[in-house]
Amino acid sequence: MTAAIETNNLQKIFKLGAVDVEVLKGIDIQINDGDFISIMGPSGSGKSTLLYITGGLDKPTAGSVKIKGRELSVMKDNAESIMRRREIGFVFQFYNLIPNLNVEENILLPVLLDGKKAKDFRTKLEEILEIVDLSDRKHHTPRELSGGQQQRVAIARALINEPDIILADEPIGNLDSKTGTEIMKLFKKINREKGKTIVQVTHSRESAEYGNRIINLKDGRVC
What we know:
Strand content: 25-35%
Distance between the termini: 25 Å
Helix content: 25-40%
Number of strands: 10
CATH class: Alpha Beta
Strand order of the largest sheet: 6-7-8-3-9-10
């Protein structure tokens, strides 16, 4: 079976002036279709860097990343960009919603950026709004929503193009514990009912337990 995500000897070095900072030191992981993976580790362990590289948002210094058997390093920029838009959904800690767009418009943004017509996604939009429990908020702007509701919009936006993989970077980092629990339950529901492969970065052991496997990082290595 082809893995959803596979890394081989993944390395990342950042240059800070004359100093080389080795953030990832030969990471080998395999994430299968339908997995819900939690990546944990102390600050500076390379968690978010690993997530961004596996999603094609950053490039490794050495090693390889494969998404469903396709190695990112040999893909042309346009092909990689299309793959990222259509096959991977991203959820970030700070929501990254457009303030002057309402809930519907924010969710449909990836569709428009992919050159598709919003009207062709009306049924899918209503279905996703139901999943994230925002059907009665679809005409509200982000400033009219709570933090938890804004994160639900971000999750809906990640789902609209029907990607197989969802990558989430500290998705409940800005939320209170009750709201955070609701968001984690939503991720679990999406994983179980929609069969989405989910990879989250988290500091929280409680949040990590929602996944079926935990990958621990320390000093740039899997431990």
